[in-house]
Amino acid sequence: MNKVLVLLSLAVLMSGCQNFGAKDDPYASMRCWAFRDEASVTREQVEYIRKRSETGDLMCKTLLAGMYENGHGVSQDIPKAKVLYQSLAQESEVAYSFLGRIAESGLDGPPDYVKARQFYQRAANTGNSHNAEAGLARLMEEGKGGAQDLEGALALYLSAMQSCNDDQWKSILRLRARGVTLTAEQEQRMNNVWLGTTTGQLKRRVWVVQDAVSTTFKPGPEGAWVQVKVEYVEGSLEPRLSVVGSSGKDAIDRAVLQGLSDYRFPDEQFQTAEHKPWAGIAVVRIRARR
């Protein structure tokens, strides 16, 4: 099932319409949810989703609409998908993002960028649809369906951006290269997203190293700690690593450095007037094994 559809399904349900199934079956929505990633959906499962949709279950209705849109488990039927999305939009305007996507893609005829803008705008106005913000920003940047507005597109990309691994981050860098100037507040937002992505990925790498080194070594009942300084080097995604807090055992320290050696920054650190290369401390705990 389309990842965007899944995320938008959650947005619909979490924006004030918390209908997770009828009172007679509180787990109905979760059953529909369980079908979302199945490569093939059985006739019985389709019928279950359809019946739950008819009772007003928003999750099941959203998934059914997506099935019609993508031809997943049923024959592709864009008109049916649109009817269901319109029904969902009566409950939460976040669902207009689905309709914007169809209008932009031209699945039911030539792309209608004017209508796509209108739908994306209605969904974006809720403040609960990053996908709608990104879609609207893209059309504003390209001047499709209305006037080109690079500053407006920038603001929407910034709002929709979740990490420096997503398309919104790349879009902002593209606009910046075109000469669009960021305010100090917008630059801080970029820095915060870069830092959040960097530290999140580093933490996950530390967990992997902890498990691997703990399996290999026996540091004693108290365990051991290794503190590693991780520094960003201008022009490189490869960090400079150095032990600043030793475990007291060279072999453990070397194993930790080796384990972290393949960590890479997600992107170059965002440059600002007050830019300083980032540095942080990764604390690796080597746990005693029983």
Automatic annotation (TrEMBL):
A Pfam family this chain is assigned to: Sel1
Domain of life, source organism: Bacteria
Keyword terms of this UniProt record: Signal
InterPro entries named in the record: Sel1-like, Sel1_AlgK, TPR-like_helical_dom_sf
Signal sequence, start to end: 1-22
This protein's name: Sel1 repeat family protein
UniProt source species: Pseudomonas costantinii
